Amino acid sequence: MGTKFIPMNHLAPSLSGYRGTRAELLLALKKEQPLTARQLAERFGLTPNALRRHLEALEADGVVRHRREVRGVGGPVYEYSLTDVGEALFPRAYGPALTTALEALCDRHGVDSVVTLFRRQWDAVAEQAKPRLSHLPLAGRAQLVAELLSTQGYMAESERVSEGVATLREHNCAIRAVAERFPEVCAAEARFLADVLGAAVERHGRIVDGCNACEYRVSEE
Fold this sequence. Notes:
CATH topology of the largest domain: H-NOX domain
Strand content: 15-25%
CATH superfamily of the largest domain: H-NOX domain
Shape: globular
CATH class of the largest domain: Alpha Beta
CATH architecture of the largest domain: Alpha-Beta Complex
């Protein structure tokens, strides 16, 4: 049976009980934090008071925090971002237990053994996806791969830049704990993307380096 692709916006109901506007607020902050209350109100078409009620509830839950920011002339603004608890709402496919197991594997066989493990996983995903991608232009391939990555918790999306050029962004790192300990696995992910897309792939940002997304520029070879 083939891989089932699910668009990123289907992820909202899975945020540990958060639904509707509050789930969407969490998703917006995950993608572009920090955001001001005014920016969020404009995006969601809410009045400041209505938005504030949602943000206050999320702060009370400990998943969102704000800081006071002075920007030139005028009064201060309040910027909102996710707390560590809020970040933990998003899928993490590999937790501390697996990281510990990978540490043991690395101690015995070296870091290359960890990279090989992830390469094998990505190779299996690529082989399953390639038949659906072979007849599509690059923009279509990037879109389907983004949907595939989203089913695995990466909150991915693609954007067509020009003919033969696209951007692929992952707003959540499902292997963050592993990537922080073994940054070499990020190279395995880039290799997978180049293979499955049949394109040149350049990384322009990583979540583990403090960026809001892992971003790749994809272009026809």
